[in-house]
Design a protein that fits this description.
The protein is α+β, with helices and mostly antiparallel strands and 198 residues long. The protein is built from 6 helices and 5 strands; from the N terminus they run αααβααββββα. It has a 5-stranded mixed beta sheet. The radius of gyration is 26 Å and the shape is globular.
């Protein structure tokens, strides 16, 4: 009878000591990947650089964060002819469907979203357009190493809303020459048509 009286408090004490060990707070695990150095969206230049970071890191969140909720894409005539009807009503939802499909297809990207000689216009008011900015993207298939390149001039319209700048409209104009061999390359309209029409 005496043993039974002491057994219960001993069990409670043992459980209390064990729970102290089991439920002690631990240091958090270190992050598995390096953080993407996105810039604050305080001007159009930083927004455009964020899209370059998104491409180079295959991060769809960074792409969406920098697009206006009313984003519109307008293809060049060659991409439109190659994918008839694919770009009708191309909005943010269609753009993100394309980006998600593209990034998850097993590719690595190296991009330069602005040619060195492009003069960035100062934003006036809540909207500014960059005319004839030239972007260049190298897409490598990670399974077989095959490479596809896209280089084109575009008109990019940025809009300021709710304390942030966004890409409001992207209009591809025409494919530009490959810096390596001079061949005319397709615009991102072909890339969008390839992955966005699936």
């Amino acid at each position: 009878m005496i043993k039974a009286r002491f057994a219960w408090p001993m069990m409670v004490l043992t459980l209390f000591v064990l729970s102290g060990c089991l439920f002690q707070p631990r240091d958090p695990e270190p992050p598995t990947g390096e953080p993407i150095p996105y810039l604050p969206r305080t001007d159009p230049k930083k927004v455009w650089e964020n899209l370059q970071l998104s491409l180079n890191y295959n991060d769809s969140f960074g792409w969406e964060e920098n697009l206006h909720p009313e984003f519109t894409y307008i293809p060049d005539s060659e991409a439109e002819a190659q994918f008839p009807g694919a770009f009708v009503g191309w909005d943010l939802a269609r753009e993100m469907s394309f980006v998600t499909s593209f990034y998850s297809s097993g590719v690595s990207n190296l991009s330069k979203m602005r040619n060195d000689e492009f003069v960035i216009p100062d934003p006036v008011g809540d909207e500014v357009s960059w005319e004839s900015v030239i972007y260049y993207i190298r897409v490598t298939n990670t399974s077989d190493g095959a490479e596809t390149r896209y280089r084109a001039s575009a008109i990019i319209t940025f809009r300021f809303e709710g304390n942030f700048w966004y890409v409001y409209r992207w209009e591809d104009q025409i494919g530009e020459s490959d810096p390596d061999n001079g061949n005319i390359l397709p615009t991102m309209g072909v890339l969008r048509g390839t992955f966005g029409s699936k």
